[in-house]
Amino acid sequence: MLKFSKYEGLGNDFILFDARGLAHIEVLLSENTKLVSQICDRHFGIGADGIILGLNPLRDGDIRMKILNADGSEAEMCGNGIRCLSRFICDLDSNNKVSTLKVETLAGIISSVIQDDGNVSVDMGRPYLEADKIPTTLHQCSLGLPKGTVEFSGTKFDIYAVGMGNPHLIIPLKDVSSIPFESWGPFLEDHPAFPSKTNVHFLEVLDPNNLKIRVWERGAGPTMACGTGACATLVAAHLIGLSNKIANVYLPGGKLKIIWPGVNLPIQMIGPSSKVYNGELDLSSFKPSN
């Protein structure tokens, strides 16, 4: 039996394993996408948007994070996942009162702090605005980020790209509640301008201090929240003149506060995370095969 915990950040939920010293678990899950999908299935498995492994660091971090989407693909980084992993490790090491953490990710080392009010503040690093680093084939525009257009039902819409260690597409709209979300989301996720596919964020500006987005996450589909996406959306909204550098970003699962001092400077994300329950997983009940 393998112990796990389930955590959520604004409804974006993850199955977490303390796999420090359990290299075989990393190998097993990394090489069996179907097994990951079965575990994340909400009807036949535990149910989650993804799996997070807390692993021994390889560099100067306190812990290494491997995040696997619900379809078994690996993500470079995840803002909500970072907050959940930080809370998870803090709960595991509560006797030592761990409140700060340096997390190794494929996007670099990310630092987090559990605040006195229970929220988790994360230094998300600086956004990538260069097309080749996102990556995207959209062309750089005069506003300082890649821009393109898409057409739906005879109407053209502007789209923008921002990287947060993973790719993000932002599409500003007047009303995100009225769009055909289930068809636009997967179409844009697999847009040919994004060779590694992309996370998709439909943006509605409530006012310069408050943004509303709906999230179609790469490899997971509709999710309640996306931390890196909230950061990318704030960056895009500010550069195209729709928001201030500090704003609340409202997602289906709740609110994140995003602070961006400016170009070439790191973004701060502040939001909640909490434990749902602990459990034990019998891997023999699944059939790991691709």
Number of domains: 2
The helix tally amounts to 5
Shape assignment:
globular
CATH class of the largest domain: Alpha Beta
CATH topology of the largest domain: Diaminopimelate Epimerase, Chain A, domain 1
Q: Mean pLDDT score, rounded?
A: 94
The structure class reads alpha+beta
Largest sheet: 19 strands, mixed
* Second CATH tier, the architecture of the largest domain: Roll
**Name of the CATH superfamily of the largest domain:** Diaminopimelate Epimerase, Chain A, domain 1
Terminal CA distance reads: 22 Å
β-strand number: 19
Rg: 18 Å
| Range of helix content | 10-25%
- Range of strand content: 35-45%
Low-confidence stretches: none
**Topology order in helix (H) and strand (E) letters:** EEHHEEEHEEEEEEEHEEEHEEEE
Describe the structure.
The protein has 290 residues and is of the alpha+beta class. It has 5 helices and 19 strands. The chain has a 19-stranded mixed beta sheet that branches. The radius of gyration is 18 Å and the shape is globular. It starts with a strand and ends in a 9-residue tail after the last strand. The model has no long low-confidence stretch (mean pLDDT 94).
How would you sum up this structure in a few lines?
With 290 residues, the chain is α+β, with helices and mostly antiparallel strands. It has helices at residues 23-30, 33-40, 79-92, 181-189, 227-239, and strands at 2-9, 12-18, 50-55, 63-69, 74-75, 100-105, 108-114, 120-123, 139-140, 146-152, 155-163, 167-172, 199-207, 210-217, 221-223, 246-251, 254-259, 268-271, 274-281. It has two domains: 2-125 and 273-285, Diaminopimelate Epimerase, Chain A, domain 1; 131-265, Diaminopimelate Epimerase, Chain A, domain 1 (Roll), CATH 3.10.310.
